[in-house]
Amino acid sequence: MALKDGTRVPRLVKLGGVIGLVCVVATGCTPDQVLRFGWPTGVTSDAAAMRQLWTWSVIAALAVGVLVWGLIFWTVAFHRKKGDELPRQFQYNNPLEIIYTVIPFVMVVVLFYFTATTQQEVQAKESDPDVAVDVISFQWNWEFRYPGYQTPDGEPVSTVGTTDWTPLLVLPTDSTVEYRLSSEDVIHSFFVPKFHFKRDTFPHPDKNNQDNVFQNSIDQEGSFVGRCAELCGTYHSMMNFEVRALSPDKFERYMDLRTRTNPETGAPYTTAEALRTMDCGQLCSPNSVTTIPFDPDREDSLPEDAGAAATNG
């Protein structure tokens, strides 16, 4: 009997390990995804801070879970009813009550501290950002206006989306970008999943209790989908845009073109014309690569070169 009891625990450990391995493999997650506990990858330093908070929160939760499960199984295994004798009672054990009152309180305080510090880091703003962009939402598209750059006719550089062209929000990497949000009609929401951040846009930013300005810094070049995350009407689901993150030198070249006159048209360079002129591969494609424009007439399809054919923006 002792031999059987001695071999039973290792077998249970092996069985538990096999079950855990099968569960991990069955999810289809990569090792990196497992270590991040499913948290998606981001492209900003703020996203990294949020991932760290999520990771340690899950580890703490798992530790508490393992402790609770262990106490439950220990009680079931070693404190089963063995007769009519009343088990030892602990309801008036003051030290024990103090322990299970203080420990949860400490856990809440620690979690609150790290949550608050992460929130402060994400919402922090520099007094002199590298680039400022006015994000203006309307039913059902976006305008991105750069007040720090002017076209030859004296107007701020601007990109406006249409029903046949998904607007591109061109931004520099490794720079502090300030977003100033507003709406022309109803409440919308500026959401870039790769930023791990969204914020509503209001028709009257000065008449609501939400800060309509935030900042971040993009860590890598790329094309990242953006969406409206607030139900705003008939074509809400199609209110897309794209963030095009370029290295600082490419961004300055892009802005240099946007502030000049296109000799072929006699008008300031549009977004599509400037990106096409730069000719730096897919990253400078005038077409949206993350979403497609929408057709309010709900036709079956749109031409693939709709973005390239657009002249506005």
TrEMBL record:
Keyword Transmembrane helix attributed: yes
MF annotations from Gene Ontology: copper ion binding; cytochrome-c oxidase activity; oxidoreductase activity
Enzyme Commission code: 7.1.1.9
Cofactor(s) of this protein: Cu cation
Cofactor comment text: Binds a copper A center.
Membrane topology recorded in Swiss-Prot or TrEMBL: Multi-pass membrane protein
Catalysed reaction, written as an equation: 4 Fe(II)-[cytochrome c] + O2 + 8 H(+)(in) = 4 Fe(III)-[cytochrome c] + 2 H2O + 4 H(+)(out)
Region of interest (Disordered), residue spans: 293-313
Biological processes annotated in GO: ATP synthesis coupled electron transport
Locations listed in the record: Cell membrane; Membrane
Main location, first listed in the record: membrane
GO cellular component, one term: plasma membrane
SUPFAM superfamilies: Cupredoxins (SSF49503), Cytochrome c oxidase subunit II-like, transmembrane region (SSF81464)
The keyword Oxidoreductase is assigned to this record: no
Keywords on record: Copper, Electron transport, Membrane, Metal-binding, Respiratory chain, Translocase, Transmembrane, Transmembrane helix, Transport
Domain (Cytochrome oxidase subunit II copper A binding) ranges: 128-257
Pfam (any one): COX2
Residues annotated as transmembrane: 12-34, 54-77, 98-116
Function statement: Subunits I and II form the functional core of the enzyme complex. Electrons originating in cytochrome c are transferred via heme a and Cu(A) to the binuclear center formed by heme a3 and Cu(B).
Family the UniProt entry places it in: Belongs to the cytochrome c oxidase subunit 2 family.
Designated name of the protein: Cytochrome c oxidase subunit 2
Lineage: Bacteria, Bacillati, Actinomycetota, Actinomycetes, Actinopolysporales
